[in-house]
TrEMBL record:
Hydrolase is among the record's keywords: yes
Keyword field contains Lipid metabolism: no
Domain Glucosamine/galactosamine-6-phosphate isomerase: 44-250
Source taxonomy: Bacteria, Bacillati, Actinomycetota, Actinomycetes, Micrococcales
Keyword set, alphabetical order: Hydrolase
Example GO BP: carbohydrate metabolic process
Record-stated family: Belongs to the glucosamine/galactosamine-6-phosphate isomerase family. 6-phosphogluconolactonase subfamily.
Region named Disordered: 1-35, 130-149
Identification of the protein by name: 6-phosphogluconolactonase
Top class in the EC scheme: hydrolase
Pfam family, one: Glucosamine_iso
PANTHER family for the chain: 6-PHOSPHOGLUCONOLACTONASE
Pathway: Carbohydrate degradation; pentose phosphate pathway; D-ribulose 5-phosphate from D-glucose 6-phosphate (oxidative stage): step 2/3
InterPro entries in alphabetical order: 6-phosphogluconolactonase_DevB (IPR005900), 6PGL (IPR039104), Glc/Gal-6P_isomerase (IPR006148), NagB/RpiA_transferase-like (IPR037171)
Source organism (scientific name): Pseudoclavibacter caeni
């Protein structure tokens, strides 16, 4: 069985230039009214710290603007998990006014360590007086009697906020964000806020993901691309390669790409 790590290793050797013909009909980055910024961090740790600060700033700014609660989307993967752990180390944030979701989830049982939200559940449990006061909204899991990912995606869509105030998205080596992969149908249903992916090139095959439309309604998007394996994807995003989902992942107010290359 191919694992997610094997997939990443294979992707690290891939260029992205040969995908220009996959452009599809998704929205272009230029269409976004948001401000787009790229921060090159000297180390992975610095990248995680910068992304973590951006999330906290987004939470504080939203509350300062008068919101009762703040909606935050987290991401799985290496850097995403490190950001979630770093957020857990921040005790003095207004966590009791924060709702947390994941931008995508693997279609596995909630006790499976492959779940993206396994990290958040662990972090919330460890910090009951800090981030443990936030409300985590787990995506549906396969269960006896409700094993249809399409039904689950509709339930997820119904549980999602109107928009994320802050959405963190890891960038895969192939330029994927959430579970929206290049060469896959990530732009076909712009009306859906979430849908099921049944042919993920990165295991597991079946996932639930927010849509590009949902991503692009976010107030602030923080894209994180850490490590040499992501360098080609970062170059592609900077070059505006429309085949890369990450290139389209912009926020309404701002978009920050944090990378190490
Ligand atoms: O499978 C996934 O991969 C991406 C990127 O992960 P990374 O380890 O390459 O940073 C992640 O953002 C997504 O949530 C996850 O499901």
């Amino acid at each position: 069985m191919r694992t997610a790590a094997m997939y990443d290793a294979q992707q690290a050797g891939d260029g992205t230039g040969d995908r220009a013909d996959q452009a599809g009909d998704g929205p272009s980055r230029d269409a976004s009214p948001g401000i787009w910024r790229h921060l090159v961090a000297p180390t992975p740790e610095a990248a995680v710290a910068a992304a973590t600060r951006a999330v906290l700033l987004g939470v504080r700014d939203r509350l300062a603007a008068g919101a009762d609660r703040v909606t935050v989307g987290l991401t799985g993967g290496g850097a995403g998990s490190a950001i979630t752990r770093a957020l857990g180390d921040v005790a003095d944030a207004p966590w009791d006014r924060v709702d947390l979701w994941y931008g995508d989830e693997r279609w596995v049982r909630v006790d499976d360590p492959e779940r993206n939200d396994a990290v958040a559940r662990d972090v919330l449990r460890r910090h009951p007086d800090g981030i443990g006061r936030a409300r985590l909204h787990p995506a549906p899991q396969p269960a006896a009697g409700s094993n249809d990912p399409d039904v689950a995606a509709r339930a997820l869509a119904a549980d999602l906020p109107d928009r994320f105030d802050v959405l963190v998205l890891g960038v895969g080596p192939d330029g994927h964000v959430a579970s929206l992969f290049p060469d896959r149908a990530w732009a076909v249903d712009p009306a859906a806020d979430a849908f099921a992916v049944r042919d993920s090139p990165k295991p597991p095959l079946v996932r639930l993901t927010v849509s590009m439309a949902m991503i692009r309604r976010s107030r602030r998007v923080v894209l994180v691309a850490v490590g040499a394996a992501k360098a080609a994807a970062v170059r592609g995003v900077l070059a505006g390669d429309p085949a890369l989902p990450a290139m389209h992942a912009t926020g309404v107010e701002s978009t920050l790409l944090v990378s190490t290359a």
